[in-house]
């Protein structure tokens, strides 16, 4: 895994998930392919393979750089700012 300049600034413990699915997809009637959890605030958004890419949109709009997979059995993290797995 690569270096990320944002990991040390994340809250500990990580925030609780703000839902069980992508709220934006539920509101628009689209289907999320996979889910991602913002490690700054707990927002749940759909991945970039989903039609509307709400997780990356959240990162751009909020300035929250790091998310992790919100899929069962997965624990990888991605920094949108540094473009690295962390």
Anisotropy-based shape: globular
Query: Which structural class matches the secondary elements?
Result: alpha+beta
Strand percentage, roughly? 15-25%
- Roughly what is the average pLDDT, rounded to an integer? 94
Radius of gyration over all CA atoms, rounded: 12 Å
Number of strands: 5
Order of strands side by side in the largest beta sheet? 2-1-3-4-5
Distance between the termini: 6 Å
**Largest beta-sheet details:** 5 strands, antiparallel
Could you explain how this protein is built, in words?
The chain is α+β, with helices and mostly antiparallel strands and 86 residues long. The protein has 2 helices and 5 strands; from the N terminus they run H-E-E-H-E-E-E. It has helices spanning 23-28, 54-62, and strands spanning 35-38, 44-46, 66-69, 77-79, 84-85. It is globular, with a radius of gyration of 12 Å. The model has no long low-confidence stretch (mean pLDDT 94).
Provide keyphrases for this structure.
2 helices; five-stranded antiparallel beta sheet; alpha+beta; globular; 86 residues
Quick summary of this structure?
The protein is α+β, with helices and mostly antiparallel strands. Helix content is 17%, strand content 19%.
Set down the secondary structure blueprint.
Layout: H1 23-28, E1 35-38, E2 44-46, H2 54-62, E3 66-69, E4 77-79, E5 84-85
Antiparallel strand pairs: 1-2, 1-3, 3-4, 4-5
């Amino acid at each position: 895994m690569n270096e990320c300049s944002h990991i040390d600034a994340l809250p500990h413990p990580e925030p609780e998930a703000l839902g069980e699915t992508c709220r934006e997809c539920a509101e628009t009637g689209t289907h999320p392919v996979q889910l991602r959890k913002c490690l700054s605030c707990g927002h749940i958004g759909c991945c970039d393979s989903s039609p509307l890419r709400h997780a990356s949109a959240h990162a751009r709009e909020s300035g929250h750089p790091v998310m992790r997979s919100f899929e069962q059995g997965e624990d990888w993290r991605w920094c949108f700012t540094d473009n690295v797995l962390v």
